């Protein structure tokens, strides 16, 4: 995947990385929507790929060429008769004098990143060469990455092209450490063995590190910078990470902003604050990085900036080179996202008097589980398709390991009966496993005065449940 | 000057910084050529400015508005009747609600930097907003400047807009330390008092530091990165700097490349090399930075890249966003500089097998004195204007303090008599003082087979003289 981040654009083609947790149905939809011509498949995901190809075949869609990637652990007992090429063999027959196909315009697309895939509305976020270049430099700068960094890949490359760091690490002459499996033992082993200087990871990964068995831990010989995002690092985890020897940077952004669009630039004077205050400062989403032209908190109705008082709430909006070109083949969603000339993040925030922003809530009720964004609406759509369900609402339940897990509140149709396990299994049959609710509660759903389901009340109920 | 690097572009105007060592005649020429509308003058340079204005008045040229800058040492006995405004008073009446005038295009000019000023051929290097933005980020990256740096200004802001670091330091939330006078004592005092993390300086400044009286020196509490360029740092100076606690980075570029276009990216494994080898590595001009698209060493006749063997000599050429837009009001020189689609640096170099370049000689015989570029041709033009001079050639003489000083070789016309002192005074009357030769030698000039003056022989003679 790292090599392909160079090979594909240099061949004049467009990258479209797919989430490795997707099921065959979703993969088939995204292959079709992206009009992919070549599918590179790791051997561990071959079965899903083959399932997706079967679905495409059934629909009469043209199939992409398959290139299989293997490694030393690859067992040839896997059936690869349906694959066209093996990656390493393909590389072997490449030409040394191949001329790089440069983009005709710097605005040409370099990649498409799908934010969340449902059969109804996959959204392909288009990145340009220009944006990816500038975000690479910005990501290096916000990571405080000196020359010759050693970067441990934990953030998947299918997440905003790894925040554009495949290119950023290369620009800094860096070394990339790629691992098949992320575990506390592996993380510590890799850091020591390869002299890792930087890594990224969702709060879940931080959680995994601080809660790891002491036998796995090794004393860090140098400071390791960990970039985290998705949700602010909880204070306890933050302090424990720093005790172990990590330096945690809090980044903020969306797929539509090439990953991090802002960061909590840590002011040296904040080192002196008492722990609780420091944690409060660190949880801010901060200021835009140098690749982003503008980030603001605005009233979406009037497009006026909110007062920088730490209280007035508005929607976080971005504009600049490191905002997506648009959603692939979805002009309607693109126009909506760029209403009034700004990209609407869907996140609600306040602006502090020093200009740092702090996200307070999500407009779209996204659930962030293990670093993956789960749209509550997508899960609800599946729940609504269950014969017994009358009303459904999904919100986040706090979780020590995953950060959050989906929690479903359901009202059943009169005369119908089911139970939590049956609902969970139903969801697992129709969604990627990680998107299925882990908790199901049957109640009369609270409503707002206008008759809508009162999600705020449900969020509070889910919060009160505590971690699973 | 630092404030104006923001105020002028934000007013929709174009910066044109003038070398503070220029004389009134040169300033008048550059004011006329640049068509400057406002002249900001430090009170210490007011006399030169007034002299320049008088010359403009004599020529019937429209005069710019004058804005006087003062400081606490300013004595009001200086005649400022001819000035229109005082800077601080002007700032006081500014409007808080002033709307920034953004460039219509990112290719719009942000500044003009004059490379060397003679009445015959001032060359105004035009920088664009786009190039300055990218070079700011690149300068931060090659300087390994983390967030919240403290930058000591020794490189003048009239040199390539301080390598674009006024903007780069701001982008990293940095602190700027500006000083009136550069001396070893001041440098050490400022570093300690302000916790300086980064500074730039010509090899002359490094020389000044390592040869400073021990009483001025103070132990450095943290590593101070010093970026140097113009000519490679001599090994002895390099090692002494590192002993004192500085980390020296070798940068390479020209005014036409926004300052540094390349840098000797220091590979960690080079730390293990014996001192002489390390010094050899450090003296390389290196590799292009991430803002520069391409740097290559080419045969200017065929435009073929030289073989990367460390021996084959060619001309260093650049292309990319951080190459100037062109020379202001000089299409002929612009076309010449960009012949065949690459900017021709005029420097001769080899390329090593690892891709690092090493400059071997200068096509144009530029003399680098105290960080200032002196064109030998400009000095020769003045010498040729002396009634007694038949032939003149100016080359660099090595100098412990200045790096190099101009050394003139002259053949007098038959029947004419003069002496070194008279020639030096003549040059000082017609050139900025620093450009006047410090050494004058009367000989029959050696010639090449094609009848041209054999500068290589003269350079060797000047070298053999040793330091003044």
TrEMBL record, chains A, B:
- UniProt-listed PROSITE patterns: AMP_BINDING (PS00455)
Q: Where is the AMP-binding enzyme C-terminal domain?
A: 378-452
- Note the superkingdom of the native organism: Eukaryota
**SUPFAM superfamilies reported for this sequence:** Acetyl-CoA synthetase-like (SSF56801)
Output the Gene Ontology terms for molecular function.
Answer: ATP binding; medium-chain fatty acid-CoA ligase activity
Which intervals hold domain AMP-dependent synthetase/ligase?
1-328
Record-level GO cellular component terms: cytosol
Q: Where in the cell is it found?
A: Cytoplasm, Cytosol
Keywords assigned: ATP-binding, Ligase, Nucleotide-binding
Pfam families documented for this protein: AMP-binding, AMP-binding_C
Stored InterPro entries: AMP-bd_C, AMP-bd_C_sf, AMP-binding_CS, AMP-dep_synth/lig_dom, ANL_N_sf
Its family remark reads:
Belongs to the ATP-dependent AMP-binding enzyme family.
Full protein name? Probable acyl-activating enzyme 2 isoform X2
Query: Which organism's genome codes for this protein?
Result: Cicer arietinum (Chickpea)
What gene name is given for the protein in this entry? LOC101512252
